[in-house]
User: What shape does this take?
Amino acid sequence: MSKVGKKPVSIPEGVTVSVADGAVSLQGKLGALRVPILSHTNVEQKERELVVTMSGTGKQASANWGTMRAHLGNAVIGVSEGFSKVLEIEGVGYRAALEGNVISFSLGYSHPVKFTVPEGVTVAVEKNTILRFSGISKEAVGQTAAKVRALKKPEPYKGKGIRYRGEVVRRKAGKKVASASA
Assistant: This one.
C-alpha cells in the first residue's frame, strides 16, 4: 500500500481547485495548472483538501495512487509558492548571459552555446555565473535545469562545469609525478 497516497493534499487559501473531465485544474496567485488524473485512481475534493483513492487493485493501481497524490501536492505548491533551482558555473572564463529568452553560454568551447528557455520557466542570471530557474511546474523547472547542467557537467579533476547549488563534486587526484632518483 502507498504511504504517500493515503495522505490528503491540503489546499491553502487563495488556491481554487476543480475536478472535471479526467483532470484536476488548480488556480493560484502564480498561475494555473492542469493535472490529468492517472488510470486506476479517483480524486475527490472534500472541503479544503484533495483525497486520492484507488479504483482498482494491483501493482499499477498502487503505484498510480502515490504518484497521483505526489503530482497534486506539487501542483498545489507550484500555484501557491512556485519552485526554483539554482545552478552555478565554475571555471575560468565560463559565464552566461541572458538575451530575451535565450541564454548564451561561454563554456570553453570554440563557440558560444545557445539555450532557449521553454515556456513557463523564467531565468535570472546573477553575476554571470549563477542561474536561477523558477516556475510553477516542478517538472518543467527541474527538466530545464537538468538540460542546462548537461551542457557542461562538472569534471572530477578541477571541478569546472555547471553544477546545482550545494552539489558536491567528487574530486579525483591528478597524475602523480614519480620523483627521479639518481
About this structure: The mean pLDDT is 86. The helical segments are 3-6, 59-80, 138-149. Residues 104 and 114 are 5 Å apart (CA to CA). The first strand starts at residue 9 and ends at 10.
